[in-house]
């Protein structure tokens, strides 16, 4: 028998042939896909020549590509700001303090650095360090503080502080010393180590017209109080000028204090419309209380006179008068107040008339109006009057009743708290209570009623004017004061007071060395 054996190599060759053909197919498909992608990208034509076919769609597409690439380039543009180099000198306060601790200069200035000298080879400890023979300081009286506590904090001994307070109280009540008063204090040498420095002298301005000084006639003598009365002139300061583009800015430019200008505009606003009735050619006239001391200090006070000259349209003259500081015109007629104030800032939520009561459930007369307001909102009097009732008033809850002029009464109901007492006089806008929900009420609100001769009326229908009128001897005094005030010369209060013969004799002679500090004129 004959057998034919097949080669193993031929078997491998037959099995490898299909795998090779499959690999070729994959390579061919990838090459074909790549060629298609390249041809697709080439067909986009993203960067055409901008020098050809200007104005065509292809040219605008290329322009868009150019602008986009420019924006990207500018976004990644580097910063060419200069680099800051380190300073060769120390700029930190702690580093400078370390440098100064190695110097002798701080010791020469009285150890102003608060540190010992650096431990170098030149430093030798002293058995006893000398101290300053005197300490001079400036203490300030704080709000709510007392004079003796201020002196103790400054280093004055307790017994001397009490003695100084007792001496000063004999010249001026201590409670009248204003916060911010500055006190010059000089303390002497300690009698022994660890002891309190004695007070050598002390001086301060107790009032605008009074300076007090406490010192010793000799080193071991008792403390004495010296009063120095300062001459003060109270000529009012008168400022006049043209209104121009802005009344406020023109008055401030003329030298009027801010508070006086604000009070002036408020006084004018009660008599006319400042925006509409004041013209650029009008002349403002402001007189402010003013004090100038012989020592050179000046102090401006409140507005005394508000005038406005308007040519043919007449002049407006208002002067402050009375303990309440109201302004009256030249005829003695005070401030006019038109209409009534709203008792609360909220909106009206229920009107006057018949309605179904939210709690009782049946229709009844709603003899007032309701204002929507949150709990605790302040309630104010709509105009001047006298409180005739304050407290619990049945379904009205906590309430206040006020009697006004011409038989008008008002009542404010459902308060959470009453802020006035029966019999008290109240002014327009004064707080009389706070919004609540007492009595027959479904929530916080104000029920406001008005009566005329005891009959309920609709509060929304009433609008009246209240004003004051001077008469008799008071009117004569008012006119005399107004005439005297208007006779003040413009700017007369700005001149320096000439020293009297006594003041000139008491002045210390000027030293030649002090004349060097004078400013020299430029020729």
TrEMBL record:
Please list where the region (Disordered) is annotated.
489-523
The cofactors named for this UniProt entry are: Zn(2+)
InterPro entries per the record?
A: Cell_wall_metabolism_enzyme, Csd3_N2, Dup_hybrid_motif, M23ase_b-sheet_dom
The annotated regions of Basic and acidic residues compositional bias extend over 512-523
Q: Which CDD domains match?
A: M23_peptidase
Name a single GO cellular component: cell envelope
Q: Which biological process, per GO, is one annotated for this protein? A: proteolysis
Output the lineage of the source organism.
Bacteria, Pseudomonadati, Pseudomonadota, Alphaproteobacteria, Sphingomonadales
Q: Keywords for this entry?
A: Hydrolase, Metal-binding, Metalloprotease, Protease, Signal, Zinc
Quote the subcellular location field of this record. Answer: Cell envelope
User: Native species of this protein?
Assistant: Qipengyuania vulgaris
Where's the Csd3-like second N-terminal domain?
238-352
Domain M23ase beta-sheet core, by residue range, is 364-459
- Enumerate the GO terms in the molecular function aspect: metal ion binding; metalloendopeptidase activity
- The name of this protein is Peptidoglycan DD-metalloendopeptidase family protein
């Amino acid at each position: 028998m004959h057998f034919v054996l097949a080669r193993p190599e031929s078997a491998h060759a037959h099995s490898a042939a299909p795998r090779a053909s499959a690999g070729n197919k994959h390579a061919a498909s990838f090459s074909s896909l790549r060629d298609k992608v390249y041809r697709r990208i080439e067909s986009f034509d993203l960067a055409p020549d901008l020098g050809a076919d200007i104005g065509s769609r292809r040219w605008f597409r290329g322009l868009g590509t150019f602008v986009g690439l420019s924006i990207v380039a500018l976004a990644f543009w580097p910063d060419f700001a200069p680099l800051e180099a380190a300073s060769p000198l120390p700029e930190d306060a702690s580093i400078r303090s370390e440098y100064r601790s190695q110097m002798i200069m701080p010791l020469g200035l009285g150890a102003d650095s608060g540190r010992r000298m650096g431990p170098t080879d030149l430093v030798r400890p002293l058995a006893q360090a000398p101290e300053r023979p005197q300490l001079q300081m400036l203490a300030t009286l704080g709000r709510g503080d007392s004079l003796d506590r201020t002196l103790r904090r400054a280093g004055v001994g307790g017994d001397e502080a009490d003695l100084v307070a007792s001496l000063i109280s004999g010249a001026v009540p201590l409670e009248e010393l204003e916060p911010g008063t500055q006190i010059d204090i000089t303390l002497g040498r300690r009698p022994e180590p660890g002891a309190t420095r004695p007070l050598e002298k002390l001086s301060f301005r107790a009032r605008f017209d009074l300076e007090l000084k406490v010192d010793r006639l000799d080193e071991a003598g008792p403390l004495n109080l010296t009063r120095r009365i300062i001459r003060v002139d109270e000529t009012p300061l008168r400022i006049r000028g043209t209104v121009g583009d802005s009344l406020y800015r023109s008055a401030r430019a003329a030298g009027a204090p801010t508070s006086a200008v604000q009070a002036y505009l408020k006084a004018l606003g009660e008599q006319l419309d400042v925006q509409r009735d004041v013209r650029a050619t009008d002349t403002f006239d402001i007189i402010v209380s003013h004090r100038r001391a012989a020592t050179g200090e000046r102090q401006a006070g409140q507005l005394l006179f508000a005038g406005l000259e308007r040519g043919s349209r007449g002049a407006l003259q208002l002067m402050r008068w009375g303990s309440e500081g109201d302004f009256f015109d030249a005829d003695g007629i005070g401030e006019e107040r038109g209409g009534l104030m709203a008792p609360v800032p909220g909106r009206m939520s229920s009107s006057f008339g018949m309605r179904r009561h939210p709690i009782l459930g049946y229709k009844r007369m709603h003899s007032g109006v309701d204002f929507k307001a949150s709990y605790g909102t302040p309630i104010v009097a709509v105009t001047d009057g006298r409180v005739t009732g304050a407290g619990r008033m049945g379904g009205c809850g906590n309430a206040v009743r006020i009697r006004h002029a011409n038989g008008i009464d008002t009542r404010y109901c459902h308060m959470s708290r009453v802020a006035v007492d029966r019999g008290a006089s109240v002014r327009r806008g004064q707080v009389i209570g706070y919004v609540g929900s007492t009595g027959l009420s479904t929530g916080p609100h104000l029920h406001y009623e008005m009566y005329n001769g005891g009959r309920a009326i609709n509060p929304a229908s009433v609008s009246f004017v209240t004003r004051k009128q001077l008469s008799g001897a008071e009117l004569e005094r008012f006119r005399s004061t107004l005439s005297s005030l208007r006779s003040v010369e413009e700017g007369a209060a700005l001149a320096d007071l000439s020293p009297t013969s006594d003041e000139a004799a008491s002045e210390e002679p000027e030293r030649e060395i002090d004349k060097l500090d004078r400013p020299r004129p430029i020729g």
